[in-house]
Design brief:
Helices cover 30% and strands 24% of the residues. Helix 2 links the parallel strand 4 and strand 5.
Amino acid sequence: MSDLEHVIQPFDARLVMIGSGCIGKGVLPLLLRHLVLEPQRLLILSPDDDGRLLAQEFGVAHQAEQLDQNNYETVLDPLLSAGDFLLNLSVGVSSLSLIQFAQRKGVLYLDTCIEPWEGGYTAPDKSLSERSNYALREAALQLRRESAQGLSTAVLTHGANPGLVSHLIKQALVNLAEELGDTTPQPTTREEWAQLANRLNIRCIHIAERDSQFSSKHKIADEFVNTWSVDGFISEGSQPAELGWGSHEKALPEDGYYHAFGCQAGIYLQRPGASTRVRTWTPSTGPTHGLLVTHNEALSIADYLTLGQGRQPTYRPTVHYAYRPCDDALLSVHELAERNWKPQSGQRLLDDEILDGSDELGVLLMGHARNSYWYGSRLSIQQARALCPYNSATSLQVTAGVLAGVIWAIRNPQRGIVEPDELPFREILQICMPYLGKVEGIYSDWTPLTGRHSLMPEQTDESDPWQFVNVRIT
């Protein structure tokens, strides 16, 4: 058995995959490599014929069908039976509707993002709070509270981020505890993980990612270029910026608001995430500027690591995404903002044309005795192509997380609705590791105050470098 066949999971039912975009194309060869699944028992369902050639290459069926609120049950009902798997990699198809359908039928389920129906992110009749990832997550958790015990497993948001990063955080906490001499037994419960983070004085956690991949063909005017789903990036980038709000924070930002419902672990800013910049740190370049794009993990991780309740808990770290996309994607975001968030008429996904570069995806834990600690995956485009066809460095980090979540759900078929933070981190990482390139932890003495005030005075809180006012770029 090769290193890339380290896990072989029997599965004698049917798998229906919704979506044949960047992640769908990348995960298909992984599923057929690691699941004992005859190709004829796998169906790709997509809104057009984009995935047909790929399906033919791998000997799987393809059906072109646009799912909407009126037809999804009619389309899916004859395709799925109890014990089958519904893998949702779509954009603009309601995750909650699919979960309810799957659990009524006894079908396993996994997605990489809690999606609303098409238009839900920008619906004019909804408030910013109602259009947030916080609201989508709270609706999913409410569905779990209302559901009976022992329903079929539905894994929420399990790609790279959200998904893989929740497990990287636990490994990073274990590494830090060992480094700093914390001899308490390794946590086994949510409360124990939060207690460990508190003892280590973790004040802030960034999902710190830098994508340096590039192609020979540069972005042109009226075109959005990206290394993963263009529609997905535009959707989440246009949502309000969101972050888990730490117990150490002294004051809300002027444009920051709590939600009037739910767990109170997160806040939102009255500003699109793709136009909200933050200071962060990644290994290849050190200090860098990232986009505070809303992601579910900022909320679920902050909630998971909370001691106490409500807006003033005993402990909670500030958690958010800090994303430095590839150069052409960053130019695309600037142009999108110039167009007042009206999407460009052209889209281009960078795949075979990528010449070089890598994706560094990790978690940056700050505030502890060693200051800052980045732990994550450093994967080059050359490594990604050698490991699995139809993947870039960015997509393989996601598809590895999808694969691990699918295998866990098959092994645990009656767990109901679960979040990544609730899955066993060692088991998930063991499946993902061969596809992540170099996985390492790196310490840094960087803080958001490093090198400040050299050009002109700035508004900072010198008494506490880990305040969000020091992280945000205004």
